[in-house]
Amino acid sequence: MIGPNDKLRAIVLTALMVTSIFGGTITFAGTASAQNNFAGNTAPTTVYLGDEDVNLSEVPGLTTSFIGVAGEADGGLASVNNLESADVTTSNGFEQGGYSNQSDGQLLVSVQEPEISDVTLEIPNGADVTNSTVTNDQDTLNVTAEWNFAQYENVTITVEDEDGFEIQDQLGTDLELETSDDVATLTGLTDLDSGEYTLTVEGEDDLDGTTRSVTFTITDQENTLTLGQTTATQGDSVVATATGNPGETVHIRIERSALLDSYSDPNDVFPQTGDVENPPGVTNATDDEGTEWVAAALALGDDGEASARIQTTHLDTDTIDVELAPGTDINTTAEDSTELSVEEQSINITSAPDVVRVSEDFTVEGTAIESDEVAAYARIDDDWERLEGDENPVDIDTDGRFVLELTASSPLHIPNSYRLAIVNEEALNSNDQFPETLTDNEFGDLETEAAFDVRSVEGDLTAQLSSQQIAANVGDGVTVSGTALGQGNNIRIYKVGPRGNVQFVSADVDDEEFSEEFDGIDDRGTHTFIVVGEGRDGTYAAENADNANVGGEITGDEVPQQAVAIIKEAYTGAGVDDQVIELTLQAENPQLSVEDFTTDGQVAQGEVTVSGTSNREDETVVFIEVLDANDNVVTSTDTEVNGTANEWSASLDLSDVETGTYTLRATDDETSATVEFELVNVLNTPSETPVTETPTETPEPSTPTETAEPSTPTETPEPSTPTQTTSTSMPGFGSVVALVALFGAALLAYRRG
Description:
Layout: H1 4-34, E1 45-48, E2 65-71, E3 77-79, E4 97-100, E5 109-112, E6 116-122, E7 132-135, E8 140-147, E9 155-160, E10 176-177, E11 184-187, E12 195-203, E13 211-219, E14 224-227, E15 231-233, E16 237-243, E17 249-255, E18 282-286, E19 292-299, E20 305-311, E21 319-326, E22 336-343, E23 348-351, E24 355-357, E25 361-367, E26 373-380, E27 383-386, E28 394-395, E29 401-407, E30 416-424, E31 437-439, H2 440-444, E32 449-457, E33 460-461, E34 464-465, E35 469-471, E36 478-485, E37 490-496, E38 502-508, E39 513-518, E40 525-533, H3 560-570, E41 579-588, E42 602-604, E43 607-613, E44 621-627, E45 633-640, E46 647-653, E47 660-667, E48 672-680, H4 702-707, H5 720-752
Parallel strand pairs: 1-5, 7-13, 15-22, 24-32, 35-41, 42-48
Antiparallel strand pairs: 2-3, 2-4, 4-5, 6-8, 8-11, 9-10, 9-12, 12-13, 14-16, 16-20, 17-19, 17-21, 18-19, 21-22, 23-25, 25-29, 26-27, 26-28, 26-30, 27-31, 30-32, 33-36, 34-36, 36-39, 37-38, 37-40, 40-41, 43-46, 44-45, 44-47, 47-48
Organism: Salinigranum rubrum
Subcellular location: Cell membrane; Secreted, Cell wall, S-layer
InterPro entries: PGF_CTERM (IPR026371), Surf_glycop_sig_pep (IPR026452)
């Protein structure tokens, strides 16, 4: 039987159902007005992931169950409650890909990701200002977009300023696009402040999570002109950049009065390069007031910029005005101008030494815009002499730079202060060559030159051997090295052996240093090395002596002293400034020694340093072993010979070696040396034994009576404490028993209860 409460419940339920149906109808109607939900009546049809209430009822073959047959959907299952109002969402199992009504069936539905592929902003003249600038005299901005879900949803437009506030309501009501051919026009841009704005296009309804954003920047409307450089040498090229409203045409111009008489063609001032618009291109023009101009028209691109090149070859050496005006009419008023200072053609020194060593190579760097080549000269008395060098003269690089590679030999070989000058092709003679000498008058007639001072000083040569002693006939070698300041590119080295035989080597100088290794010193005795530098004149006195027979002076029958004298004589004498250094090396039988490292034959356990001497070459390996009485190796290490000091050194850890008698043996690949020692716990040093000399203090027997100070023993028999200990321990034990008893009683009472 249905009671009043049941009736009330029925009424409420009916009302809720009616309300939900009514509300659903309202919602559906609202949705229908905001989007087109009809998917068509052909298969396959395309829908977009996230779209809701899509009408799939007329697509042939579809059921409410979908089986993935392609893409990410392949093998997956999706379903909807009603084909007339299908939600293509991930919650219903949909993924990007193709679906059918059976696993091997025909593709019926293609589910794609919604995408806005492009957003374009244009001003009325057609210039694309997407992510670019708009001058503040532009009032309107046209917006177009491309998106793949136009069949189902429109897209809307929002605009945010730099503070993140939405301002699209200030820009008109046309803020929606229905198709990719549709254009939304924003108006009222002139009321906006200068700055960057972000425009976002997004889906209107279910696909509002699909967005794409671009920017536009509002700038001042005035056209501006800037130059890549404000000072130029006659012949330089200068880049001029104009900025203004994107898509417009402007022109830059220079008065004809600022040009040389040699000027004839406007292309010689404004070449047809960069953003020069052709036509009208570059022209000579005369304004209404009779002023003559040379001008170039520039097309400002979508970014509102355009560049042109100004050639200064035909510009007068003065400060000239370069103007920017709108359009191509020469009579329009200039909106901006800038000054360009044109200087005479010159040679500029950017890098040069103050001091050079005689015979040393050095470089001079600089710029010589519009010159073809340059050469370096030094003033000697009343003339200018061309310097020696690998690159003198030298061609000018395409960027106007040059590097002269010179040598401080003749005429700089006498240490002194000199005036050097760099000249260009004006100095060429009738044969189109730089002469060896320019008279003072010829030099004075040159219009372009650059001069500087340099001081030449004596060079220096040093040399040393890597070792003063060496083992003979074991393959060891020695290195001759040193510095060669102002000694040219190579050093000559002669080695005279104990039997008079001569060996010659030419050692290259690199960064003013040289190094040469002599291997296989076989003969025992004194080996003499003679190192020769070419001195300040940059040449060797014995030019043809770069061989073992010293240009034929050595026959092979000389004793060592005679061979050494002949070599030294070839590089000494009147007028000769070659530098000569003599070094000697002793070649001996291989030798190896061990320094005594014990204290009276004993060594304490722990870290021990052993060392010795050796006449072996640098880095020869020395093996160190510690042998017991049975010649068993208990520990070992190795080290290398320091050839410069003829020494070696190593550390041994004897901490874990048992005490006893041992032998230390040091060995290279040719000889060995040994030292016997006793390994002890602690060394018996004499400083420890005198402690036993204190018996004189022992006979103070007054202390024994004090030692027996048993005034306390009388207190010791106080055994009351032990009895107290036992008595205190009993109550503690009793309390434990009492606690156990109480616990048992409580348990019994519980059970009875």
